[in-house]
Protein 1
Amino acid sequence: MAVLFRPFFPVDKSHWAPVLAETLADLDFRVFPDVGNPEDIRYYITWNLYKGDRIAWPNLKAVLSMRAGSDWYIGHPEAPVNASFVRMIDPGLTCSMREYVAAYVLRLHRELGSIERNFATMGNWNVLVPKLASERSVGFMGIGHLGMACADALKPFGFQLRGWSRSPKNLTGIETFSGDNDLDAFLAGTEILVCLLPLTPGTQDILDRQTLCRLPKGAALVNVARGKHLVENDLVALLDSGHLSHAVLDVFREEPLPDGHPFRTHPKITATPHIAAVTMPHTGSKKLRETIDLLERGGTPEGLLHPDRDY
Ligand SMILES: NC(=O)c1ccc[n+]([C@@H]2O[C@H](COP(=O)([O-])OP(=O)(O)OC[C@H]3O[C@@H](n4cnc5c(N)ncnc54)[C@H](OP(=O)(O)O)[C@@H]3O)[C@@H](O)[C@H]2O)c1
């Protein structure tokens, strides 16, 4: 049984390949393009499927993704038909998402961006009376693996936490909403909206004028899910009209964000280059090892894609 790793980023060869080689030392670990005998390949660890790739390895059991989302894989013309797909659920990635979301929610809550700007440009020394966290509502659109981790990180501050999902949930310390029928109520009471939905046909363009208008005046958005959740012109119109106060965006319809894109300079937009959460070599390799071991024992790993249920 061989495990094939396909490096993509320059750091993959220097950071990932050695850690994977060590974690999978007792297995036949190979690094692309050294495929060897195609019949040996049982697991394929990759960030992507590449045009023209022939993943027709007859004994391939699973494609193990380095990425947290599944949207890139579903319907991919190169996706092998008889192999399973497992997305990455890495404790290191979860940790980095928790830090990012907590950092920006706190920043928005304390209005630190405008305070810093006013001080830098006008020397503004006015004392503001900030809202208490207990007076501020933070709503997670998507309260799955990452949404839950981020909400948990915010609990100690005392925010009013809310979560919207597909199916009903009962979560300690989080007011829950589900499905289309609850969306109005969820949005109407959310002052800082964090999007952590997967990108599916049902969620694409969900952050449009109609949805964002239903947030209270002065609400802010943090989108750390996928760029295609957001209708960009609708966001700009609502920021310009003052209905929304600020948006923190880590993901974009086109990445890298093109030069001259209005998001790069809009005063009410904070943009980061898709860095909210990163798969980490040590924790990610350990997770891949656990997934392989579980699949070998006939188990169901976390992150296994069920296309009928998940899409
Ligand atoms: N910016 C970054 O660096 C970065 C890094 C990692 C991940 N991400 C993004 O984060 C996303 C979420 O990851 P995750 O691990 O938390 O996913 P997850 O565990 O699958 O959770 C997804 C959540 O969204 C809900 N949901 C799905 N479809 C819905 C719909 N149509 N209506 C309402 N709720 C819906 C699910 O509800 P149910 O539980 O009821 O199904 C669940 O609560 C990923 O798909 C990826 O796009 C971004």
Protein 2
Amino acid sequence: MPETTIETTSPTSADPTARQKAATRSAAFVRPVRTVAILGAVGALVAAIALPAFVSTSGAADAAPVTTEQLAAGNSQSIVVASEATQAPSTRGQFVATTPDEIEKRKAEEAAAARAAAAAASAASAATASSSRPSLAGMALVAPGSGAVRYPVTSFTPGEGPGSGRGHEGWDMIAPEGTPIYAAAAGTVTASAESIGGYGVSMMIMSNLNGTMVESRYGHMVYGSRMVEAGDQVSAGQLIGLVGNTGNSYGSHLHFEVRIGGSVIDPEPWLAANAG
Ligand SMILES: [Zn+2]
């Protein structure tokens, strides 16, 4: 009867031949593992140098590091020599880059994540740190007038209104960056954020004007210039932000929208008739 050999990769096998084969196999794995580890280390180094802000803000991305040992644990065919596998940080996040294309892709992903994290951090600090807010020196904190409705910008060049046929739903009030923006009416801030779609830095206020619900929207403000948050109450003419060029905007202006009963109206004649 011919001898039957049952191959096993278990390092605890009693059969010395099998143990030797396993050792040989593991040696064959050492080189690619080391290559992966080095590539991973280089990628981590590049990221650490190029994206220092990412390190402190990417808790989610770094929360679940995967080592080559962990990867190997899921593959019983791969016996990783511990001393080789733990010499260098092998991967960042959950991605193991093995080809130039994959490394490029990973770097692009990390750069995108870093930009997002930096933007989020910037937004968070802008919301809490008044020092990052543009200077308000010499700026009127309340719009002129005494009426229930005020012009959101007091000095401006009239731009495009709603109904242009390309989905534009507001009135563009062209003014230099940093020009104060005032609440068009007293009410409750229903949204306020550093980025709301094409509006960019923007906010929305719901007002009750003699029983009519009027929503006003203010888009393209300067980053960090929002003075109020969702849930805040504002008075008519209260300073709420600064004219900017954020979001889907090509030139400094306030995109001012007014909706009555949920329907877009032309703010220009509405202000002309009601503001005072
Ligand atoms: Zn506009």
